[in-house]
């Protein structure tokens, strides 16, 4: 069975949803799942943009076959080799042995380290290169450390589609919806988009700023990320969020209080502080128990709010371990 959706006249989403994996990268909880997006362009040549995680291989191969509808697969563009996007590449090349793989030399090296040898398929590209597949001309832009060193994004100058790799992604599986304008993003998606960005790419704000500068000159009309929804309207809303996050500027004035408490005393201190802050006019105060709330949520809130209070008891003559872990991760 296949599940694909039309993105433009000749571009299809052929990815898959993962609602079974407990933790993304085996670290971050994903209670609402995640999507691994892949796209198929049906031009004079057929071009697949990325693959999916091994957990969704069965769905993906059915989708590839359905999208091709009997045509050969000519090219695969690999933007990023993290296994959530490249784990099924080796198997794909067994199915389609004549496909050429367009990627960077660094990506080829990394793929080999993951056990996928693309030497017989390799068409190297580097920053600034472009390639025509018929009507569509794709331009390749290096995006190092957004999120790994080998990452690139690509831009289709024919229709203004930016294939943004991990940038502009989100946690959450796609419930039939594919475009950000099909959901109430600010109500239902922004928190998981922020948690994805801040925990996956948040460390590399400088690199994200570099990518935003590189792409600012492009006439981007659609953003197709490797996770989450596609943007075709109101792109500036999401680009502005990433600009703010990558400059480490808060979205809201408010105080995040994260406490570590064994027997409730530090917890009470946190409550007293929160009450006094509200009495003094602070309108947004959030309190979290560091032992109870997964730190991916705390990091996301630390990006969102303007002020942060950490209150910790001691443990074995040191800071309380869950608080220590949170600070280290942050
Ligand atoms: Fe979604 Fe860095 O992989």
Structure description:
The protein is of the alpha/beta class and 330 residues long. It has eleven helices and 21 strands. It has helices at 57-68, 83-86, 89-95, 105-113, 185-188, 190-201, 205-216, 235-246, 265-279, 295-304, 321-329, and strands spanning 5-8, 11-13, 16-18, 23-24, 28-29, 34-36, 39-42, 46-49, 75-77, 100-103, 122-124, 130-132, 137-142, 152-156, 161-163, 222-224, 252-260, 285-289, 305-312, 314-315, 318-319. Strands 1-2-7-8-9-10-11 form a seven-stranded mixed β-sheet. Strands 12-13-14-15-16 form a five-stranded mixed β-sheet, with no helix packed on it. A hairpin with a 3-residue loop joins β4 (23-24) and β5. α6 packs across α10 and α7 (205-216) packs antiparallel against α8 (235-246). The protein binds MU-OXO-diiron (FEO). Residues 80, 82, 84-85, 147-148, 166, 226-227 line the site of MU-OXO-diiron.
Question: What is the secondary structure topology, with strand pairs?
Answer:
Elements: E1 5-8, E2 11-13, E3 16-18, E4 23-24, E5 28-29, E6 34-36, E7 39-42, E8 46-49, H1 57-68, E9 75-77, H2 83-86, H3 89-95, E10 100-103, H4 105-113, E11 122-124, E12 130-132, E13 137-142, E14 152-156, E15 161-163, H5 185-188, H6 190-201, H7 205-216, E16 222-224, H8 235-246, E17 252-260, H9 265-279, E18 285-289, H10 295-304, E19 305-312, E20 314-315, E21 318-319, H11 321-329
Parallel strand pairs: 8-9, 9-10, 10-11, 15-16, 17-18, 17-19
Antiparallel strand pairs: 1-2, 2-7, 3-6, 4-5, 7-8, 12-13, 13-14, 14-15, 20-21
Helix pairs in contact: 6-10, 7-8
The structure holds MU-OXO-diiron.
């Amino acid at each position: 069975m296949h599940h694909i959706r039309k993105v433009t006249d000749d571009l299809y989403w052929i990815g898959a949803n993962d609602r079974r994996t407990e933790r993304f990268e085996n670290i971050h909880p994903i209670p609402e799942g995640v999507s691994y997006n892949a796209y198929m362009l049906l031009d004079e040549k057929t071009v697949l943009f990325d693959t999916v995680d091994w957990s969704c291989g069965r769905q993906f191969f059915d989708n590839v076959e359905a999208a091709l509808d009997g045509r050969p697969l000519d090219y695969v563009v690999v933007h990023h080799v993290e296994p959530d996007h490249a784990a099924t590449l080796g198997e794909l090349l067994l199915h389609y042995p004549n496909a050429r793989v367009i990627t960077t030399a660094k990506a080829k090296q990394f793929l080999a380290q993951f056990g996928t040898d693309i030497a017989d398929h390799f068409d190297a590209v580097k920053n600034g290169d472009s390639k025509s597949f018929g009507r569509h001309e794709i331009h390749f832009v290096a995006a190092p450390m957004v999120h790994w060193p080998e990452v690139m994004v690509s831009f289709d100058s024919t229709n203004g589609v930016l294939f943004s790799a991990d940038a502009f992604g989100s946690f959450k599986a796609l419930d039939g919806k594919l475009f950000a304008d099909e959901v109430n993003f600010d109500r239902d998606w922004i928190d998981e988009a922020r948690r994805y960005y801040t925990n996956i790419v948040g460390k590399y704000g400088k690199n994200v700023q570099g990518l935003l500068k590189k792409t600012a000159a492009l006439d981007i009309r659609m953003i197709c990320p490797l996770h989450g929804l596609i943007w075709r309207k109101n792109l500036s809303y999401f680009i502005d969020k990433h600009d703010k996050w990558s400059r480490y500027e808060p979205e809201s004035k408010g105080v995040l209080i994260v406490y570590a408490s064994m027997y409730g005393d530090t917890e009470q201190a946190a409550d007293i502080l929160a009450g006094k802050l509200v009495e003094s006019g602070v309108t947004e105060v959030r309190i979290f128990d560091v032992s109870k709330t997964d730190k991916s949520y705390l990091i996301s809130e630390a990006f969102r709010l303007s002020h942060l209070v950490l209150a910790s008891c001691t443990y074995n003559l040191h800071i309380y371990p869950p608080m220590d872990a949170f600070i280290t991760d942050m």
